[in-house]
Structures
1.
Amino acid sequence: MEDALPFIIIFLGLPWIIFHYITKWKTAATITGDDEQLLDELYHLAKRLDDRMDTVERLVASDNPEFNSARLIHDRETDNQPLRELDRLLAEKKGTRP
């Protein structure tokens, strides 16, 4: 029995441990539908907040000429480029064009 124990450990125990953790890894790596919906909602909220921030900064800048916001100094197109990239990726995923 003592001679068979290493073979049992190598041929049964080791593959079981490997396949167990591979299965755990694959199930943990997937994103659920609820997670995806939450990410979509957070993305849309971030986009709305970015638009609101731009509006508030434009209003403050029009009332107070001395106001210099870092966001207003930079090009607005450059500021919104990451959001456009996310829009494009979401449209590709859903099968529609933006």
Note: Residues 50 and 80 are 9 Å apart (CA to CA).
2.
Amino acid sequence: MSHSSAASFRELPPELFPVIVEHLPFVYRPPILRSLALTCHRIHDIVFPELVYDTVRLVGEDQASTTLNTLIASAELVTAQDIQDKGNPSLSHCIRHLCLESSIKTPMRGLTSLDALQKLIDVDGLQHLSSLTLQVHSEWDGTYEEDESGPRLRLPSSFLTSLDGKCPNLKRVQLSDFPQQFGKEWIEPHIFSIKRLTSIRIEGNLLNYPSPTINLSQLPPNLHTLDLHVVDRGENINSNVLHGCVIPNLCTLILNDFFASDALAMNSFWRAHPGIERLELGRKVDGNWFDNFEAGMLPNLKYLQCSADHALVLLPRVSNSLIKLSLWETYNAQGPYLLRVVSPGGVLPALRSLGIHRVSRNSPEPREGHRWRENENGDVLEVKPSKATRQFDGNYIMSLSKAAPNLEELELMGSSDDTLDSLTNSLSRFSKLQRLTLSGAINMYSKPFFARSANWEDYAEYNLGVVDKKNYGKYAPEIFDEAARDLANGCRTLDAVTMGTLFGWLSLRDGLSRKIVRECDGGMVKEVTKTRALGNIIGREDEW
């Protein structure tokens, strides 16, 4: 930021700061607001404490428990008169968006961050809470107990009852990694009973259900976001739970571990929900979801995640309006084929975000478009079967740049064996590309983007074992920092480069990421700095 623009920023009216903050994605708010508080006394007084504590992310048991217990002590001293006189007398009363990410050792011995959170709610410490995200998973501590029924990680129904009674402004709830058994009770009926909710996201295991199912008949009436990733140890949930279900304001539908058994019934569901703007069908979504899909269905669709097979049906009808597209299970050249051939005109003019998961092996059966290839002039050649295997090379990325000229973020999951110059020359065709995520393989049978990355010390989570030098490929950076710098020097619009082991996720827990600091706009890289690893952000501004 230049001296003049920084001075102008410091002179902004106080009432504009909350407006600006509301336009920031959740993942950026805490660090930006903390930095603003340190800018100068005037801005500090504007943003602290209300805006600094508006959006809070707690990571790890130590930070979460310490912070929550401090907030409890403050909230317990507050009286009703204090609230009337001072507005938000406790720091916790400023919190509107809270994310808790933690790993709790089991069997549990003593109080946890979840206990502290429950107490903070019970002492009226989160009266203004609007959204709550809990990404808490159990970690076995390596010990055994004679009584196997001892304390395990469960979210008691009393917690959700407290949320309902003590957080009157709560609109959005996201629960991840929780087993859903409370003895004979289940999580989702308690969540669905909070009728003011507009967004429900549940990711966890349905334990001991009579059959893998979920009852959607009692959803809150104003729900606009439904995200379900629940599975009963291997059996997917039948899509018939959606049949006959009408959610009047549904805007976002995200499903995983589901299968469709009746395509005609699903067509009725799509017709009943023309307001859907974001549809994500995960890797474990099977069956015929779009057979006989008709023109005019899903007219407002802007964000789509689906398999290559589903994309063959959908893209001819929805590609022109798409802002974001993520494709699962593409083989060889199917990615560029779907964009350049299946999509009308071969161009997606509104597309700003693209993710492609490419299966490393050849398909056991012929796949439409898997042998497609074009040159820079647009001449199309179908290669011989013996040469059909396609990696993420310069030619592949060149075709993507023709299909999505306005792309701002790109995620590629699969392997590459091309030169640095070829890769960066093609990436430079994207005049607006800011964020690049190169995911490794989805399992140990697939190859990472750069073969050498399997030997990086800071990418040990990939766990492929040692790769022999003769298999390093044409470009073999010794460390991630080198790869980030080289890619950013070759593609001068990049602001961030990320390497992960997950596709289609926002938060890449084991990923590596570097923010690019340049000597000047569009100039060479001055330095790369460590930052939080994130996948594609567009469309996920209200997620952690």
Note: The chain has a mean pLDDT of 87.
3.
Amino acid sequence: MASITSTTTFTITLLTFSLLLSLSSSHPSSTILDAAEILSTSGFEAMALNLELASQTLLARRQSRSLTVFAPTNFAFNQIPQLPLSLLRYHLLPNAFSLHSLRSLPYGANIATLLPGHSLTVTTSNRRLSINNVTVNPTPLLADGYLVIFQTDTFFDPYFQVPRPSSGACFSARKSAERNRDGFGSKRLISDSLTFSFMEASSALRSRGFSNMASFLDMQFLGLKERPDQLTLFAPMDEAMASHMGNITEYSDIVRRHLVPCKIMWNHLVTLEEGTLIWTYQRGFTLNVTKTHASSDLFLLNNGVPVIFPDLYNSDWLVIHGIGDILLDTTSTEDTVQHAESSLSKFDHHHHKNHHHHNRVYNPAEHSHFSAFH
């Protein structure tokens, strides 16, 4: 009799355990709630709250418990007052991806998300874990085999596309440049994806001490219907811009002098030969680049203005480099750069004044019909 009772108890216990396991597996929304709790205790309250509120909707038709969560910071959430459910879905993967799994994926590989028809793109390079050109912290907040949580500084852009590799299209010979003097590349209509990218760029500028240039750009891009395929912006720090705020007539010229109609990443910029000229949107104004003799890592532009924050922001169409001062047009003003290094105060502007005869002129276009700049 005792043996029968013992067997019955064991059977009931086994059935109970199996039932609990089945219930746990059949309720994947519990995985979301677990993620929300972990995020909340780890300082990602905004992501935690959004996951908790959307838990039932997010996984209503899912059977698997496996999940990978990419959690932007609270600051990133502050830049988007009302987070669309679609954007939240875009940061969730239907499988648990370990750090090893993510690192093993090749550049350009696509990863399916819970947002139908929208995949993430692996952009990892030089051992920096990156997705959609957003750096991912390689140390997960949690990785238990079913649930993996990674942290990111900002949101992934759902409209991200792998940037086209740099080529002679940017660094073209003078004949090619002259052939394209009436324009360069193609232009794109401003769409939701571009608005998203520009909001991200503006936010990045403000968060790193370049608020004045962000405000200039806001005004210049307001009402813009189209923009070039690719751009590079050299953004002066706020202290340098302070003396120019309030003089509205200068705004367009300032922006033009700091905008290049082609995307030049930092690793490409530092390979330029000394004296190379880069054309800007300001007609006749070029950037003359050089390096200091004291430090080959310090890359300088006109009048010894240094690049102090390389690749401050990077998307598939725009890269921003922070610089230490304003780029002045010395051909039309008597102003000088007071903060330039003394060793560069006598820098020879021969190449700048005779750019038409320079063999390494970098001229994607003299001037594009960029409506905000007319």
Note: Residues 2-25 form the longest helix (24 residues).
4.
Amino acid sequence: MFPSVTRRANWALRHGSRTWTYGRRGFKTVLLPARHEVPPPHRTSQGARLYSSTPRAEGAAEDRIQRDTAADQWLQALETAATAQWLDVLPADPADRLRRAYALLMQVILYLHRPQNEIEQSLVDFMQAEAEAGSQIYRARQATITLARAVIRDIASIPSTQPLHVDHPQIFALLGALIPLHDLYLAGHNPKDGKSLDLQEWTAFWERAQPILLDLASKLDEQGFGLDKEEWEKKDAERNT
């Protein structure tokens, strides 16, 4: 899972104008994904949705099916990472903890930028819409909380005596901004124990944490912790021997 996600994430961060961009409003960073337009369906006088047999209409229907499938796939990838047994095992190498933090953040970012019709509205819904337990938004939020907890835990576990603190002060400064949010909102809410934030708590957390997490992902990539294809293939080969 990680190799494909990281390869796409590395490409996306280096070609942001084609996938997403980072827009700044003061210190706050917001995700500004590209808009995907879908041709509107034909409608009958009764309002039923029908697609004509024209190539354009057929293409619109195919696009819709592909987007629905992609949404399920990205949610599954997000939940697979959040429920993986290895997530509770701390990498021995502190640098690997930063690499894994980057890969986990990319899982969240790629899920949020999955192909869909109304990306901007989807991001708003992810932050503040009511969501019943078991719904896609609820499940995505729960997985995001789990991965955010893991990212913060992994980076915070790196001893202050490690040279990484001196070499990458910006990464640990961003961690310092996340820790109070973790303690306030996440410390007592582990989705693996069946706990969740209520809507007000989730919205308050995500509104404040999202820009910091995006900055952290960008900074990890800039400072060499976004693994490329060759590095992942090497690690996969070592893991399988």
Note: The chain is about 65% helix and 5% strand.
